[in-house]
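Run folding on both entries below.
>entry_1
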Amino acid sequence: MMRFQLRYILLIQVLFWYSIMVSGQILNPATWSYQVSKDEVHKGDVVELIFRIELDDTWYIYSNDFDAEIGPTPTEINFEPHQSYELVGELIPLNTKEKYDNILDATYRYMDKKAVFKQKVKILGEHPLIKGDYTYLVCSIADGKCIPGDGEFEFTGLTVLPK
């Protein structure tokens, strides 16, 4: 009976350590952060929302400014509509690079090391609620591995001053 209990305890310990090792192998080569170009604004002002993505050394992220029909999944940033703001123009990627893919017979855009997207918004209310979600695809030049990712964002700390 004692022998059975020891084996049971040992099995549980092995499974516990194995689960820790497996969860430690989850890749997350893209780290997202967000900021607003100005902390204090007036109603009617236009500000830039800045999305920054830090990428691990051998990784790149697809931009949003190419046709999704060609194959790679472009980065997509979605804003939840709210009466306290309105989007001004399109989401702009900065410092993209182009690559032609022979297999797809198409050109796509990407960013490596650091990626930045900017979106202008007009502030319409005193307590702007600017939030949403994003999806993206990162790939490694080292081994060709690609990983989809997603997340949510919310811009806080924006003070609307009286006119």
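>entry_2
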Amino acid sequence: MTLQDFSRSEYVSLTTYRKDGTPVATPVWAAADGDELYVWTRSDSWKVKRLRNNPRVLVTVCDVRGRIAEGAPSAEGEARLLDKDGTAGVRKVLARKYTWKFWMVDWPATAVRLGKRPHTGIAVTFRGA
């Protein structure tokens, strides 16, 4: 597995862990920049809450529905929640990768929320990287 395996994939399954250790996988957009993989999610999402308790994650290449093919690249890592400036940087990284798809999701949602962008950037660093 390399960071580029995840960067080339349109979706990755981000597995976070509940307090009792139960894994919860969610398909997300992700893009690499430098030696980290970046994800963007709603600030009030359960994954943000779980990451506040436990930064351990498992990232696996998947499809839009979160289905994982046999032998798909996978790696364990640690995630950290980013501040407002870090989240703005994640937006730029994702916009470069997903171009019009990203803006089709981000801008209408921002208009509905009257300019507010209640999202949090997540940076994943892989073990042994």
